[in-house]
Specification:
With 284 residues, this protein is α+β, with helices and mostly antiparallel strands. 52% of the residues lie in helices and 17% in strands.
């Protein structure tokens, strides 16, 4: 039986064209039984209910009036949602995100390291953020030459709102241990350079560390070796492309993932997934 493509993959081109899109009052989050690494920056405004998922292999739960930030390239696996779960999603394309990083580098460039990914909003704060989402949705639907400029202005308002809410709740940037800071730097580097290298030595050099010390830190933070973490991340990306990007052939997928040729990709995939890419795609 063919599995459904991930909802974000079905509208990938539309998101890229529009730059920013709001999906309002989603009352059922599909359970795909597979991890997914989105290329988009996604903000979740949870209205009610509960969603359980794995975020970068760490257990997370989203509850009523929680606000969630999921930067691009990070792996999510939805496990279950309550019958009354209701959420609105703000999805930002890579190109639009680059514009925001240029205008607000402190907030958007390092947002995943400054705070945890989930924040709880008070009733008043929730209403303010809901109004922000509604305004973004109205602007995004405009057919006007200044649409993108207006979206950026509204995102600026939302950015300041979030800063105010975090301060009101007494939330500040966490004091991470040196090991946690190193692991975060590694994750960010791998998201940006995974198409260039999958070698532990490459990332150890990038972080100015010996491979042995670098490997010990990753093992301590994740419970698995750096090689296992890297392989697992690449396999998630590969499976997502094989499942959802039916317009891409094996050669194009191997190129997108940074493999020298389809044969190298096939060997890597078979070693880590137990079957060839073609066999995996045929099962979906």
């Amino acid at each position: 039986m063919k599995k459904q493509p991930h909802a974000l993959e079905e509208i990938r081109d539309q998101i890229k064209t529009n730059g920013l899109m709001i999906f309002d009052n989603i009352n059922r989050v599909p359970i795909y039984e597979k991890a997914y690494a989105s290329p988009f920056f996604i903000l979740w405004l949870n209205h009610r209910g509960c969603l359980k998922n794995l975020f970068d292999k760490q257990q997370k739960e989203f509850h009523q009036h929680d606000f969630v930030m999921v930067p691009p390239g990070h792996v999510m696996e939805i496990q279950e949602s309550s019958d009354d779960y209701l959420v609105s999603l703000l999805i930002i394309s890579p190109s639009f995100l680059q514009n925001l990083k240029h205008l607000y580098p402190f907030y958007f460039e390092h947002v995943e390291y400054r705070y945890n990914s989930v924040f709880h909003l008070s009733d008043e704060q929730y209403e303010g953020m809901q109004g922000h989402f509604m305004m973004l949705q109205a602007i995004s639907q405009l057919s006007h030459p200044e649409r993108d400029e207006l979206l950026v202005k509204q995102m600026e308002i939302g950015t300041h709102l979030m800063e105010i809410y975090l301060q009101e709740n007494g939330l500040t940037a966490p004091e991470l241990t040196p090991a946690q800071q190193l692991f975060n730097r590694f994750k960010n580097a791998f998201v940006n350079h995974s198409h260039e290298s999958r070698e532990v030595q490459y990332y150890a050099n990038l972080l100015c560390l010996s491979p042995k010390y670098f490997g010990s830190i990753i093992k301590k933070q994740t419970g698995i070796s750096a090689n296992e973490w890297i392989s697992g991340y690449v396999i998630v990306q590969a499976k997502s492309l094989l499942r959802h990007s039916k317009d891409l052939n094996i050669q194009q997928i191997s190129q997108q993932l940074g493999f020298s040729d389809p044969a190298a990709f096939t060997r890597f995939f078979k070693t880590n997934a137990g079957m060839s890419p073609k066999e995996y795609r045929a099962q979906q």
